[in-house]
Write a structure and sequence with these properties.
By secondary structure, this protein is mainly alpha-helical. It has a domain of 86 residues. Helices cover 69% and strands 2% of the residues. A two-stranded antiparallel sheet has the order 1-2. A hairpin with a 2-residue loop joins β1 and β2. Keywords: Repeat, Transit peptide.
């Protein structure tokens, strides 16, 4: 198709014709944006020229193609249109919509918008939301908010752009305040809140907001909403809600979206339903991407199904796809569960030698865990010493865990010394060391550790659990009275405790 466009260009030049529009549209259809930009640049800009000069709509067609492709020629072509006085509000909308803008350029483009006489066009909802989003993507949230506040009318698109920016930037409180004041919330607004909560670790709020949207407001989730809430379902163990979401996406054909399917695989895997995860994975078929394979390999590995994980890795290799760092975390973890030290070493070494991947700290962590569980503590310590980056608390924690299991006091003391520098508030490491001292009969060491714990005012963090009932998540702590029905909960617990005691009493009488 590109060859046809070039032949057409040559014919027009031979005939002395320079009709730009049909030729440019033909070139744009081929996807050769660099040639299209050169073509537009080669045409005279003067209206007195015998050939028709490029028009504003024609420039906008090119700007649209460049913005969609995030092409580096977007800014030069925009500057040319400015020199030729061909910029329109749509031109700025296209520019601000491009995710390639930097902080400096977002500010300069806004100034140019004002200088070119189009500032009044900020009442245009598309231009306004694009400008708000441009500042937000650049990290200039205060500027984004200022533009938003100066809008003559509150527009849903601009609200959603700022809302998404707050959520992505971790400013959940600002997002909540903006969301609460929105008169018209659409699926984009709700999705921004669900996604923002999930990305900032507030998984319960993400699930609650999703249910409020779906069941309360009657807004139908889209693919992005579903992909955002499923990780939150996994984090709080909301398996029943996850299954309900799966029925919803199947009924609307959303499983054709590989991102939705991958999110389902990961949700089922983290909730412990490996069979359902495998069924969804198989259903993806030829549309599987590397994320699909990684999610399923990791699911098998985490649940101790090391044979299945390694088998799936070999199937991935047979497809010709190149594994990435996440893949190797999964397969080395599988080797750890299977006790396959030699296989794990081969895989770790193949990252650099065969696939050109530089092992990251998480890969070293997996290897330390693999060697430590196998009792190869000296080798694990040597690997830590050879690391090209500073070992983190996960690395030393893995070594300490192995030392606790195998009773290696010398390396345990080293690991705890490092951990106390990295995470001084985590007194659990000292408790592990105390237990190792006790197992070796070193009571002086136990006393020293507990003296340190007393100085640090050691308090164990309260544990809690989630229970999903009728689509709602209920959180419980020890001696917790925050639940609205806590009296009934404790009455039921007392009844169960009494029943267990009676059963034990009956069993002891039968045995005697």
């Amino acid at each position: 198709m590109m060859e046809e466009a070039r032949r057409l260009h040559a014919r027009l030049l031979r005939r002395g014709e320079r009709r730009l529009q049909p030729l440019l549209l033909r070139v744009l259809a081929t996807g050769d944006l660099r040639y299209a930009a050169r073509l537009l640049d080669s045409y005279p800009s003067s209206s007195s020229s015998p050939t028709s000069p490029p028009s504003a709509p024609l420039h906008n067609r090119l700007l649209h193609a460049l913005a969609t492709a995030r092409h580096p020629l977007l800014l030069p072509c925009f500057a040319r249109a400015h020199r030729l006085r061909l910029l329109t509000p749509l031109s700025f909308t296209l520019l601000f919509s491009s995710s390639s803008t930097t902080q400096r350029f977002a500010a300069c483009a806004h100034a140019l918008l004002t200088k070119s006489g189009h500032a009044a066009s900020c009442g245009d909802p598309y231009l306004a939301s694009a400008l708000v989003a441009s500042y937000a993507r650049s990290g200039l949230l205060e500027e984004s908010r200022r533009v938003f506040d100066e809008l003559p009318h509150s527009d849903a698109a601009a609200c959603n752009a700022l809302l998404s920016a707050y959520a992505r930037g971790g400013r959940v409180g600002d997002a909540e305040a903006l969301f609460a004041g929105m008169p018209d919330r659409n699926v984009v607004s709700w999705t921004a809140m669900v996604s923002g909560y999930a990305q900032n670790g507030r998984h319960e709020d993400a699930v609650r907001t999703f249910l409020e949207m779906w069941e309360g407001a009657g807004v139908r989730p889209n693919e992005v909403t579903v992909s955002s809430v499923l990780p939150a379902c996994a984090a709080v163990g909301a398996l029943a809600l996850g299954r309900k979401v799966e029925r919803y996406v199947r009924g609307r054909g959303m499983l054709r979206n590989v991102y939705v399917a991958n999110a389902l695989v990961e949700m089922y895997a983290k909730c412990g339903s490996i069979r359902r995860a495998w069924m969804v994975f198989r259903g993806i078929g030829t549309r599987r991407d590397l994320c699909s394979w990684n999610s399923m390999i990791m699911a098998f590995a985490v649940h101790g199904l090391w044979r299945e994980a390694l088998g799936l890795f070999h199937k991935l290799r047979m497809t010709g796809a190149k594994p990435d760092g996440i893949t190797f975390v999964g397969v080395i973890l599988a080797c750890t569960h299977g006790g396959l030290v030699d296989e794990g070493k081969l895989l770790f070494n193949s990252m650099r030698e065969e696939f050109g991947l530089k092992p990251r700290i998480e890969h070293y962590g997996c290897m330390v865990d693999l060697l430590g569980r196998a009792g190869l503590l000296k080798e694990a310590d040597s690997l830590i010493a050879s690391m090209p980056m500073e070992p983190d608390a996960v690395i030393w924690g893995a070594l300490l865990g192995a030392c606790s299991f195998h009773g290696n006091l010398e390396l345990a003391e080293l690991a705890v010394e490092k951990l106390m520098h990295l995470e001084p508030q985590n007194t659990a490491n000292l408790v592990v060391l105390s237990n190792i001292y006790a197992s070796r009969g070193k009571w002086d060491g136990v006393a020293q550790v507990w003296k340190l714990l007393k100085e640090k005012d050691h308090k164990k963090s309260a544990g809690y659990s989630f229970i999903e009932l009728d689509g709602r998540m209920h959180k419980f702590l020890v001696e917790d009275k925050s639940h609205p029905r806590y009296e009934m909960v404790y009455d039921t617990l007392d009844s169960i405790t009494l029943t267990m005691k009676l059963v034990n009493l009956e069993n002891s009488e039968v045995e005697s």
